[in-house]
Design goal:
Layout (H helix, E strand, L loop, with lengths): L3 E4 L5 H12 L3 E6 L3 H14 L4 E5 L5 H15 L4 E4 L14 H28 L3 E5 L12 H21 L4 E7 L12 H6 L9 H13 L8 E4 L3 H6 L2
Parallel strand pairs: 1-2, 1-4, 2-3, 4-5, 5-6, 6-7
GO molecular function: pteridine reductase activity
Keywords: Oxidoreductase
InterPro entries: NAD(P)-bd_dom_sf, Sc_DH/Rdtase_CS, SDR_fam
């Protein structure tokens, strides 16, 4: 049977590209969404037209722990196993210190950190049985903070540490790695300094969703001796950070 991947936040944008790439490489895919039901079902129909019964769709609000746990159970029931977990879903918006609320804390911490942890917890027995892998989509801002985004940066820093810690805890049966994107797709809420960010990369350009999807696919299928690592796919943006 073809291996199964659960990709959170995979109805559109980078998550959809990851899903298409893994499907092209022969995996069955579980498309998770919160609100994008039309896009999720359209993507599933496209993939199932290529290979029948190779894509399923599941809905869950990752801000709610009970729904995250249900998602884990539903994912296992969909095809009877999960071989790869890609924690891609993320919330991103500014939270200046004087304005941040409890609701902001919940939204950014749950989607970026708690939900990935709970899914790792729920799916680890299947991942262990099938010697599977976990890939977390981190962020360059996990190491170098973005002004007025402290809660987001804290959550992604926690996700980076979770990646390394679980790599030790779950080895040798499960490999755990991360991908840290640079400028690929601009946030839908907008980002004022787009030109400066692009100029700060060594390659002087933005990347493509396919760059992230390719990194995920490599870590999932071809990097058998790699675990506990976070691969920066950022056009050299992190080099500029290191130089100030």
């Amino acid at each position: 049977m073809d291996p199964v991947a659960l990709i959170t936040g995979s109805a559109r944008r980078i998550g959809a590209e990851i899903t298409r790439t893994l499907h092209q490489q022969g995996m069955r895919v579980i498309i998770h969404y919160r609100n994008s039901d039309t896009q999720a079902n359209t993507l599933a129909n496209q993939l199932n037209s290529i290979r029948p019964d190779s894509a399923r769709v599941l809905q869950a609000d990752l801000d709610k722990p009970d729904e995250v746990r249900r998602l884990g159970g539903d994912a296992l029931a969909a095809f009877g196993q999960v071989n790869l977990l890609v924690n891609n879903a993320s919330s991103f918006y500014p939270t200046p210190l004087e304005e941040a609320t409890d609701a902001d804390w919940d939204a950014l911490m749950h989607s970026n950190l708690r939900a990935p942890y709970l899914l790792c917890q729920a799916l680890s027995p299947s991942l262990r049985k099938h010697r599977g892998a976990i890939i977390n989509i981190v962020d360059v801002y996990a190491e170098k903070p973005l002004e007025k985004h402290t809660l987001y940066c804290m959550a992604k820093a926690g996700l980076a540490m979770m990646t390394r810690s679980l790599a030790r805890e779950l080895g040798p049966d499960i490999r755990v790695n991360g991908v840290s994107p640079g400028p690929i797709l601009w946030p839908e809420a907008g980002q004022m300094n787009q030109e400066a960010i692009t100029a700060s990369t060594a390659l002087k350009r933005c990347g493509e969703p396919a760059d992230i999807a390719g990194a995920v696919a490599w870590l999932a299928r071809d990097a058998g001796f790699v675990t506990g690592q976070i691969l920066a796919v950022d056009g050299g943006r992190s080099l500029a950070f290191q130089g100030g």
